[in-house]
Amino acid sequence: MEKEKWHRLIGNITKPIIQKILPKYLRYSFCPTFISYSPRGEILSKASAYVSCSKMEGDYLEFGVWMGNSFVSAYHFAQKYGLKDMDFYAFDSFEGLPTLKGIDANESCFHKGQFSCSEEEFKRILKRKGVDLNKVKTIKGWYKDTLNDDTKQSLPLKKASIIWIDSDLYDSAVSVLDFITKYIQNGTLLIFDDWFCFKGNPKKGEQLAFKQWLEKNPHITASEYYKFSWGGNSFILHKRNESI
Fold first, then answer.
1. Which domains does the chain have, with CATH numbers?
2. Which of 14, 25, 61, 172 is least crowded, fewest Cβ atoms below 10 Å from its Cβ?
C-alpha cells in the first residue's frame, strides 16, 4: 500500500510536467506505468497489453472513429506493447450519425450528423499525432452500404484481436456485429464505447444488438473483461470447439 501511495504521489507531480513538455502522441511510450490515462486510454492500454501477453495475432478495427482520439491511442499503445504487425482499420461514414429510426428514433441524446469529421481531416489528425498512415485503412460510407461481402473481399483483413465499437445506435451496432463475425478468433477483445447509453437499458443500443448477436451465433461466447468511463464495457470472445 505504501508503494502505491508513493506511485500516486509521484504521478500527480510528474503528470502535468510530462503533459506540458511532450507532444501527446509521445506520452504513450514515455510515461511510467504510474501515470494515469483517460478512461478510454486505460482500456486501450490494457487491451494492447492483453493482446501482447496472449501472443495473439490480428488487427485493430474501429467502427465510429469521429476525430480519432481512441484510434490514435490504440495505435500508440500497440507500438508500446510491441504489436508491430497490427494494422488499423477505421470504419465511418465521415458524415456523422445516420438518420435515427426504429428503436433509436425517439432518443434525444443523438441526432443525424452528430460526430461528423471528414475523412481528410481524420487523416490529418492521425498524421499530426504521429500515426503511420501506411498502417491505416479507412473504409468510408454508411454501414448499410459498406459492411458487406464486397468490402470483406477487398480487404487483406484476416482476423481481429481488438474491435472498438462506437456506433452509438442499435441499427449501426447490428450491422457492425454481423460484419465482424468472420474475423472473431479465440480471445478477440470486443470493446463497446456506448454500452450504458440509453440509461443502461438492455433492450436498446449496443446491449440489445450484442445480446441478439450472441443468440444468432451460439458458437461464440463472451466473458466480461473491463468497464471504463461512465458508458463503456468490454468482453473477451471465445469460439466453441476451437483450441485456444
1. 1-36 (no CATH), 37-239 (3.40.50.150)
2. 14
